[in-house]
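Continuing the batch. This is chain 6 of the set; chains 1 through 5 are on the previous pages. Same settings as before, nothing changed between runs. Recording input and output for traceability.
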Amino acid sequence: MKCIATGVGLGLCLWSAGACAGDGLDWLAGQWCSQAGEERIEESWLPFADGRSYGVSRTLRGGRVSGFEFLRIEPVDGVATYLAQPGGRAATAFKRTTGGEGWVRFENSAHDFPRRIEYRREGERLRAEIAGPGRDGKEMRIPFEYARCKGAPTP
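Output for chain 6:
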């Protein structure tokens, strides 16, 4: 099974008439961290500019890097698209399907797992979830709970 373990942090871009309405999307920008025992996930996003944001995620286990992912959100065919590159591999695209103030969902029904990536900003917390069919075919959801990284500047 080809799996994208997205530590995710997210923004949305409403694309219309050739211009991106990126206003209000900077809720994703910044450095987000999650700690669970020996595992730490760090995800950083730049503020939106020209309808685009760029991010990177890394997972540390016992202080050693165990995984990384290049991330970006940009317009593709007029739709905000989340492009994930786990381990630096070729990008997998997830089109924006819905969203609202402080939340967004991207989907790719043709991908094995995940098929859905979602982010929700709640105050100084960022909640992310990847979901799709598990190995048994049943819906599997993997949540991520982030807070601003200690000592990181607030955008």
